[in-house]
Amino acid sequence: DRQTLLAVLQFLRRSNLRESEEILRREARLLSDDLGGSAATVASSSPGVAAATAVPPGKGGARAGAAGSLPGAGGRPLPAGPLGPGGALRFPQPRGLAVMLRHKGRFGGGVVVEDQPDVSAVLSAYNQQGDPTLYEEYYSGLKHFIECSLDCHRAELSQLFYPLFVHMYLELVYNQHESEAKSFFERFHGDQECYYQDDLRVLSSLTKKEHMKGNETMLDFRTSKFVLRISRDSYQLLKRHLQEKQNNQIWNIVQEHLYIDIFDGMPRSKQQIDAMVGSLAGEAKREANKAKVFFGLLKEPEFDVPLDDEDEEGENEEGKPKKKKPKKDSVGSKSKKQDPNAPPQNRIPLPELKDSDKLDKVMNMKEAARRVRLGPECLPSICFYTFLNAYQGLTAVDITDDSSMIVGGFADSTVRVWSVTPKKLRSVKTAADLSLIDKESDDVLERIMDEKTASELKILYGHSGPVYGTSFSPDRNYLLSCSEDGTVRLWSLQTFTCLVGYKGHNYPVWDTQFSPYGYYFVSGGHDRVARLWATDHYQPLRIFAGHLADVTCTRFHPNSNYIATGSADRTVRLWDVLNGNCVRIFTGHKGPIHSLAFSPNGRFLATGATDGRVLLWDIGHGLMVGELKGHTDTIYALRFSRDGEILASGSMDNTVRLWDAVKAFEDLETDDFTTATGHINLPENSQDLLLGTYMTKSTPVVHLHFTRRNLLLAAGAYSSQ
After folding, report:
1. Fewer Cβ within 10 Å of end Cβ, the chain: N or C?
2. Among the listed ranges 112-121, 133-142, 224-233, which one has the minimum average pLDDT value?
3. Long-range contacts of range 118-122, CB-CB < 8 Å, 24 or more positions apart?
4. How far apart are CA 187 and CA 135, in angstroms?
5. Is 566's pLDDT higher than 70?
6. How far apart, in whole angstroms, are the C-alpha atoms of residue 90 and residue 439?
7. Closest among 623, 634, 527 to 288, alpha carbons compared
8. How many angstroms separate the CA atoms of 173 and 176, rounded?
9. How far apart are CA 56 and CA 545, in angstroms?
């Protein structure tokens, strides 16, 4: 839209961003004299506010003003996002401008809009003409209609209650009908589903127009359309009812703030809907889970494994893929073919294998030959590491892949590393001592270690707030920790000192994890985004934005091409590392998500949340395929055994539970119909999948880990209450 373009050019000129103005004009093929005449008329719309023009509703459906506002003009200064080096705005082509200006909602001219919704602009969409006294009548009328409709439609249409309730309440509050809002809330809040209780508590505290300004949850609800998935028949029924009744108030809200994803076919049952709803913005649109995902494993580099005498009998046993890095035993593995679902080997650059890595793989394969085959008849032994007297407050745990070290992150901002084998932890000698060593000797790696520093425990100081996440690198040379202080730190396990502090998050960082191939790592925090880093870059390589609340946990896919994030908005997203796109959105949890685990074959994802349920997802089809009920409190730890036969879950209810993963994933209904409509049929109870429950005396389970031989290690801090 030419007018808008001129307004932005005008703004850039006034802000002395000549370079950006030039680039934009070249992109849009505008001559400089165009700016002189026609922009003058635009700029005069209102002094002190960045000139804004309305885009006709027909174009792109959204009306918006100029991007970027002037400080003190009711808007915020231009976000730093699109500014390139030297303050030049990066616009790939004129379309980039449209992206910046595109925004849902109906904004009049003269309102300043940015990519980040401006508070007053977002709220102004609530300027309604409806009669405040009739809101209760409208709502109860719709409620009566839905409750009297046929059973098959009732379950689907009941999904409307919650989003309508919130929007009508906010509309009343915004237009300062405070007493009507209060009585509306009191009359209908009890009808909402129990899993919305926390959101309703936030809502009940918003009783004045001023309260709405700084409330993020509220803004999210306003700017992201609430998604409902409804069959065509149910939708027609609703539409007919609202149009006959001339119930414009509700119809406006439905059109303005809800996204109705209509599918052809049978309406879903109450149980099918309940399994999928509960997130902050409703269900995921079906489009969101259509993209192709390469969930297969990468082919392993081949090298010969020297066989020891005692390994002879293990020679013919096929090496199974293991938990963290899926590797095959090249001695006896049957297939050397590429997995058809695997990404191309060079899709993302992965670090080269060092000699020490190859040595470690050989060790790993020898261990794999002695691995216990688990199953319902053969459950793993569980070894529990209890942190006693952890008055510092244990907040995170990780165990190295070879189970030789364990790390704890604590609320007193320390990171503590223990050796769990008889081998003590030693630092490298000082530079002066190192210069005396004969570098050609065979045991040079042994000689560089300083015996005087040997101890079972090393304490790492550096963070200035509780440490919420820890992760060892696959080669055991590095350790990551993330903290409330907003930083992620990389520590050397050779010198036990901090090498780098990565600053990118401005708020607490809740979780961090190394890629299964090392080099890359991911972090997620209170600022609602996850970031992908490489150890040798001090700035993130990718920023994954899309969650509506804190990113509480992060996990790499075994092939390192994807990252899963769990959030307090009660959704799980899968991101593509290559281009930063969100390729899957999974909804169904009724509380913030605190644990994620990929199956060793890369096909499935297990997620655990504060609702005490473990949900199982088929990544390729983008479907929920299972629900494991049994825990009574938040699930903080999930792990698949090395061969993927068993899923272990650990919870704040002081138990470890073992589930039959093979049975959970066999004979799945993933035909086209199920994928298209999301009609998932979960078994009524998951008790037949539960293989065992193991209580601790009074220790919440914070971390689980299967050793290379399938012994299950668990960890937590004893709590005396």
Report:
1. C
2. 112-121
3. 118/69, 118/74, 118/75, 118/76, 119/213, 119/214, 119/219, 120/74, 120/213, 121/65, 121/75, 122/219, 122/222, 122/223
4. 11
5. yes
6. 51
7. 623
8. 5
9. 29
3-state secondary structure (DSSP) of residue 218? helix
Stretch among 131-145, 207-221, 522-536, 644-658 having the lowest mean pLDDT? 207-221
Burial class (CB in 10 A: 0-12, 13-18, 19+), 589: buried
Tokens at 534, concatenated: 């490489």
Burial code of 32-41, b = ≥16 C-beta within 10 A, e = fewer? eebbeeebee
How many CA atoms, within 13 angstroms, populate the side-chain half-sphere of residue 184? 27
Q: Which amino acid is at 419?
A: S
**How far is residue 239's CA from residue 168's CA, in Å, rounded to a whole number?**
18
DSSP type of residue 39: H
Does pLDDT of 331 surpass 60?
no
CB 369 within 8 A of CB 314: yes
Q: How many Cβ atoms sit within 10 Å of the Cβ of residue 5? A: 23
Q: Is the pLDDT of residue 514 over 90?
A: yes
Structural contact between residues 145 and 160, judged by C-beta atoms closer than 8 angstroms: no
User: What contacts 16, CB < 8 A, 6 or more positions away?
Assistant: none
Phi-psi region of 246 (alpha: psi -120 to 50; beta: other; left: phi over 0): left
Flag the least confident range among 100-104, 383-387, 509-513, 581-585.
100-104
Neighbours of 158 (CB within 10 A): 18
Name the phi and psi angles at 384, rounded to 5: -105, 125
CA separation for the pair 323, 105 (Å, rounded): 46
Please report which helix (H) or strand (E) contains residue 598, including its range: strand 593-598
Give 308's pLDDT tier (boundaries 50, 70, 90).
Answer: low
Q: What secondary structure does DSSP assign to 248-305, as a single string?
A: HHHHHHHHHHEEEEEESSSPPPHHHHHHH--STTBSPPGGGG-S----SPPPPPP---
> What is the model's pLDDT at position 175?
84
Contact 689, 629 (CB under 8 A): no
The string of pLDDT tens digits covering residues 269-296 is: 888 888 888 888 888 888 888 889 999 9
Look up residue 538 and give its two tokens.
């001090």
Give the pLDDT of residue 664.
Answer: 87
Percent of the chain surpassing pLDDT 90: 38
Ordered by where they begin, the domains of the chain are 132-283 (1.25.40.500), 394-424+454-668+689-716 (2.130.10.10)
Please count the other Cβ atoms lying within 10 Å of the Cβ belonging to residue 563: 26
Judged against a pLDDT cut of 60, whether residue 92 lies above it is answered with no
Q: What is the pLDDT of residue 307?
A: 56
Report the C-alpha gap between 191 and 189 in whole angstroms: 5
Residues 93-117: pLDDT tens digits? 333 333 333 333 333 333 333 344 4
**Cα 429 to Cα 712: distance, rounded to the nearest angstrom:** 35
Is the pLDDT reported for residue 521 higher than 70? yes
The C-alpha atoms of residue 681 and residue 524 are separated, in whole angstroms, by 33
Structure tokens at 237: 């029924």
* C-beta separation of 11 from 68 below 8 A: yes
- Sequence-separated (6 or more) residues with CB below 8 Å from residue 368: 319, 320, 322, 327, 329, 642, 708
Give the Cα separation of 494 and 490 in Å (integer): 12
> From CA 9, how far away is CA 30, in angstroms rounded?
10
Neighbours of 290 (CB within 10 A): 12
Long-range Cβ contacts of 424-429 (<8 Å, 24+ apart): 424/454, 424/455, 424/456, 425/454, 425/455, 425/456, 425/457, 425/458, 425/493, 425/496, 426/450, 426/451, 426/453, 426/454, 427/453, 427/494, 427/495, 427/496, 428/494, 428/495
- pLDDT for the residue numbered 716: 94
